[in-house]
Design a protein that fits this description.
Chain lengths: ~260, ~290
């Protein structure tokens, strides 16, 4: 019988890859849970994409770091930098996006997006033809997201995320919802029909990598620490003498047989 | 040990189950973690003003008038009206939050404004009550609030309680002021102790006729399967032997302004406002009596 051996360290070793594959299984079930979440009017609205692997996660993390510096928003800068570390730590990342929030509002004048104005608020602020919002009008907005969105659809996305998170909880995998990962994913072309995307990284590690982090996490984190250990160790090791020319001091007297008091050595 | 009648015992457990569901609601993970969640648990008479609102609409405007405000509201009303006449009425959770301000400073643009500051300004100056709730809303707070609501739904589902999340009666709860300082309100009934009360809607099936259903299909799906294409007024096939009808007896499709319907909707909205004002007072008094400040 083949054997499946899992160990979370060293990172990206075969035992770690086996463990990550299990995380992907959890993400697949979470995606299905998202699709079965309650939804206004029962109409489909959510698309999902699972991304995993060293290259993919590294690309996502780098996009998040780029956005941290290019969005020009002080408040988001640290959030994006810290969460980029989490994107690297995750086993895989599930993206959930809503593809109806911009161009197919629910059309009931509910008022969530503006109050009294009804759905006209959304229609007025996008290009329209034949009473429809032009779905090809994208990517030229000044803000990261091309609002205003139908808040009923946005709420439905919230329901889907909730169900995915509940499935994660049921499967005992760690997960949290992130704006930063969703925005970076959108820029990289994941969930391409969606106007708003949320990232749900999944982890099956001994310590949940998405909580209990400290300030300057993008500089002071496990990867950087391990790297620092390697650096210092290698430098210090070079002070070692030729191990073949052992000094006499290297050999210490063993305690006499039967003497259990090690402290007397 | 006591011997208990099973269904009564199950019904008594609904209040305890409600507390578990609410624990899930408050523990939900969030994107912003800045949403202040509010909730109320309603039993029997606490819920009556909500039924009364739609009931009064039905009394004064008839069934068609009451359902013209928003048909799904009327369907849920039928479910509730019958459910509260049963020996095992539901326990109804009212879940709400104020999503009309943003202190995030993300300036993401999902709300349609260039910055959170502009959003807040619009909210203060032009925001307010809509049909279902207040607006504008911060999209990320909407997501967070709905994650929490979904957690409540998931908890109810895992406890195998009959439940359905509703914007319809959430809007009624919002109008009647059950929760203070909330812009989005949804209701989540737990029970009655039976299956498919809010989905297959046995209470609706008792009232609606086959011909009404046919009419609903004709009005909504005409062009999908019953209509002939034409450059004039396309004619529509019937449920029966339409081929036996003369051309003069056939229904045709025409898109036109309907002043009669407009009047009906205006009248319904007027009544809705009138009854809302009256019943809001009743709800406030009830809350004071029960010492509820939320």
């Amino acid at each position: 019988m083949p054997r499946i051996y899992c160990n979370e360290f060293p990172w990206f070793s075969p035992p770690d890859q086996s463990r990550r594959e299990n995380g992907v299984l959890a993400a697949r079930l979470m995606l299905n849970a998202a699709l079965t979440a309650p939804v206004t009017g029962g109409v489909d609205h959510v698309e999902g994409e699972i991304v995993w692997g060293y290259d993919e996660q590294e690309a996502l993390a780098r996009k998040m770091e780029e956005l941290a510096h290019t969005l020009g928003n002080k408040r988001l800068e640290e959030i994006f930098l810290y969460e980029a570390v989490m994107a690297r730590d995750a086993d895989c990342i599930l993206f959930l996006g809503d593809y109806r929030s911009k161009d197919t509002p629910f059309d009931v004048d509910c008022g969530y997006c503006n109050g009294m104005g009804g759905c006209a608020f959304v229609y007025q602020r996008h290009r329209t033809a034949m009473g429809q919002i032009d779905p090809t009008d994208r990517g030229l907005q000044a803000t990261p997201l091309d609002g205003p969105f139908c808040m009923i659809r946005v709420g439905d996305l919230g329901f889907s995320i909730g169900s995915a998170l509940w499935m994660a909880k049921t499967l005992m995998v760690d997960c949290r919802p992130f704006f930063s990962m969703g925005l970076a994913a959108q820029k990289l072309g994941y969930c391409r029909n969606s106007d708003i995307v949320v990232g749900l990284p999944v982890a099956t590690l001994s310590k949940n990598p998405f909580v209990d982090i400290h300030y300057n996490y993008h500089v002071v984190n496990m990867r950087r620490m391990v790297d620092s250990v390697r650096k210092h160790y290698i430098i210090t090791r070079q002070a070692g003498p030729d191990y073949r020319l052992v000094s006499k001091e290297r050999f210490q007297k063993r305690p006499p047989a039967g003497d259990s008091d090690q402290g007397e050595e | 040990m006591a011997m208990l009648e099973g269904k009564n015992h199950a019904h008594e457990g609904l209040l305890q189950a409600a507390s578990l569901v609410l624990n899930a609601y408050y523990k939900a993970p969030m994107v912003t973690s800045r949403v202040k969640l509010r909730s109320l648990v309603l039993t029997r008479e606490d819920f009556q003003p909500m039924i009364e609102l739609v009931g009064r609409m039905e009394e004064s405007l008839g069934r068609e008038g009451a359902s013209s405000v928003f048909f799904p509201l009327y369907m849920d009303y039928l479910c509730y009206r019958e459910a509260f006449q049963r020996p095992d009425p539901p326990v109804v959770l009212v879940l709400g939050a104020n999503l009309m301000t943003s202190e995030l400073g993300w300036n993401c643009g999902a709300c349609g404004f260039a910055s959170c500051a502009e959003f807040n300004r619009f909210s203060k100056e032009s925001g307010g009550m809509g049909m279902f709730g207040g607006g504008p809303s911060c999209a990320w707070k909407v997501i967070d609030y709905c994650i929490a609501v979904d957690y409540a739904c998931s908890a109810a589902h895992q406890l195998s309680l009959e439940n359905r999340i509703q914007a319809t009666f959430g809007a009624v709860a919002y109008l009647l002021g059950y929760l203070e300082d909330c812009s989005m309100v949804l209701t989540l009934p737990l029970g009655p102790v039976t299956e498919l009360w809010y989905y297959n809607r046995p209470s609706l099936a008792k009232l609606s006729t086959y011909s009404e259903w046919v009419q609903l299909m004709r009005q909504n799906y005409t062009w999908m399967f019953q209509m002939f294409s034409s450059n004039m007024h396309p004619w529509v096939k019937d449920d029966g032997p339409w081929w036996e009808k003369e051309h003069t007896g056939r229904d045709t499709v025409k898109v036109a302004h309907d002043p009669e319907l407009e009047q009906k909707i205006l009248a319904a909205r007027g009544k809705l406002l009138e009854y809302t004002i009256e019943l809001r007072q009743k709800v406030q008094e009830m809350k004071q009596r029960k010492g509820i400040e939320a």
